[in-house]
Amino acid sequence: MLLLPYAKVDADYLRAFSQAVQRLADEDKDDSKDAIIITPHTEELPVSFTANFCLSPNFFAMSEQFAKDLYTLEHLQLPVIASCPTGASGFGLEIMLSCRYRSTSTSGRFAFPEVQQGLMPAHGGMQRLLRLAGLEKALTWLTTGKSIDASEARSAGIVQMIADDSPEEVAIKFTDRVPAKQDWEEPDWNWQVDPNSMAIKKILTITPAMVRKKTAGIYPAADIICSCLYEGTKLDFVAAVANDQRWLRKLYSHKETTNILKVMVAKEEIDQRAADKIKNLPQRVGIVGAGMMGAGIAVVSLCAGFRVVLYDVDAEKINAFHGRLKTHLARSSYSQKQCDDIIARVATVNSWEAFSTCQLVIEAVYEDRQLKAKVFKELEAVLPSDAIIASNTSTLPISSLAEYTQRPAQFVGLHFFSPVERMPLIEIIRGTQTASATIDYCEAYTASLTKTPITVNDGRSFYTSRVFMTYLIESMILLHEGQDAQRIERAGKLAGMPVAPLALADEISLELIQSIFKQTLADGSQISEQAQQVVEQMCERGRLGRKVGKGFYDYQGKKKQLWSELPAMFVAKSALDVEHIAKRLICIQVVEAARCLEEKVVCDERDANVGSVLGWGFPAASGGVLGSVHAADIGAQIQALATAYGNRFQPPTWLQNFCVDV
């Protein structure tokens, strides 16, 4: 049996894997053995290479060797069985597909998520999937990173058996079913659908266009995957894998790919920094507020193994939380026993006494100072003296909220992102009196949730919300100026942002944005008058966003279209090029992030870049919001915009060094 540890894959891991495969090859004719079983040492197979390894000088040579090792494994005489109860992704799925018999449990899930990191599986996994599932499914799964369940995996040929058995039981039951060869190596094998058929030609015409629409043409991996699959239909398996390896080198020659990897290196360093602090974590986490954010925080805390006390006086919200938890668990790979254990660890309450045993409490109520002050007072009456209080506020300064407590050294901001279950970032905000031990504790808690923490200093809207809001505000300024809404939305996507700005404002809620504007002004800070007017006019007309079915867009279920009366409200004037609008939407974020660095709201470029990519979807292909500063023309663009539009694009002192006169 070959037990594979769950770990990030680097040079040492690949050497060990290669040695293990060679041992299996040496023992291949041992008559005392009936089969070879490959299974996770823990619950999951490894998923991905470390980014540092991907940028190392020996990466390509070791990548080629890994592809050869999988081919060796695939052609051993002994039956080779992969038993992966929770399924497999990425690197692990490449290994699994090289085995001639593959089994999973009913909860198994499978994916090649590499494209979501701007990368590709190039060690035979793409070509095996192509031959098992056909071109149409392979294109869809590989260019989107889509995850599929055990049933869909079996129908596609990714697994032959779904059985809730141990690896040893699988081997005993199914050894005699292991084929001598992979299906496509049989002389009578044919493609499920002829690659030269009109149906396939139509798919090959449409898919690259759809991919470029989704990636804005700035992420080359998806396009290259399309090429690998198309060319793979014309080549035998060995030649197709060699072709994938050539394309892998091509992918890494793109600056966008190396930019993405640099962001991933920074993320790995931040994750390791937090993981090193995991010790003496709380056994019981308290959460105040069972709304959208509080419920999400409760779900991820429960799944990380914590006991959770969830407070809310609204019974409907408590019921909604239980439904959300069950839905999340149903979509997971947890066994029924694990699901039952998770559900048993939560206590939903409407009184404060249950918080007396909590070491960490996270407040997640509305952005209202008086309400938060009341919550902190109630908490302090029952909490242990050493307990930490964290606020999930996204805008209100932490130091000012700490004034409502008797423990400012143990008060901190923990800004989660929505939806909490999916978003990988947590922003930890240090108040003026927050102790370093409190920050360390929160970084460790974040790491235990398998999320990435960035630590920033206090200030209005902190770092992520402050920079992200410039994207929305600039789109509203453009609308107020008389620019066409459709053009603004196209520019947001062209810039590489995952969601167009006006659509994103609808998702957040124009009513909430109006509330943030009012609180910002009440606290003595400034907000663009043009953006204020746009939000006020929309809210006056009841256009509050997606939650009420109407905002900048009209919504019918999942369908939406821009509100037909927008042109009448914001009369069109001179039309700017979409490219110019895209530059404004990107450069305003770069300038604001640069100001945050100069003001030491964020102290580390790594945190700034990782926070921008994971927090609000700034294009990773640019290296993150401050990574883009090193692009050849960004300084000239910023300088030109500052000349045209004034102070809001005026770069801070250090960024001026990258700006040139135009």
What does the model show?
The protein has an eight-stranded mixed sheet with strand order 11-10-9-12-13-14-15-16, sandwiched between helices. Strands 1-2-3-5-8 form a five-stranded parallel sheet, with helices on both faces. The radius of gyration is 27 Å and the shape is globular. Helices cover 49% and strands 11% of the residues. The longest helix is centred in the middle third of the chain and has 21 residues, at 255-275. Strand 1 (2-4), helix 1 and strand 2 (36-40) form a beta-alpha-beta unit. Helix 1 runs parallel beside helix 3 (59-74) and helix 9 (198-215) packs antiparallel against helix 10. The chain starts with a strand and ends in a 6-residue tail after the last helix. The protein has 28 helices and 18 strands. With 662 residues, the protein is of the alpha/beta class.
Shape: globular
From the N-terminal CA to the C-terminal CA, the straight-line distance is 66 Å
Radius of gyration: 27 Å
Spatial arrangement of strands, main beta sheet: 11-10-9-12-13-14-15-16
What is the helix content? Answer: 40-55%
Report the total helices: 28
Helix/strand/pairing class, anyone? alpha/beta
Question: Mind describing the biggest β-sheet?
Answer: 8 strands, mixed
DSSP strand tally = 18
Strand content: 5-15%
Task: Point out poorly predicted stretches.
Answer: none
Average pLDDT, all residues: 91
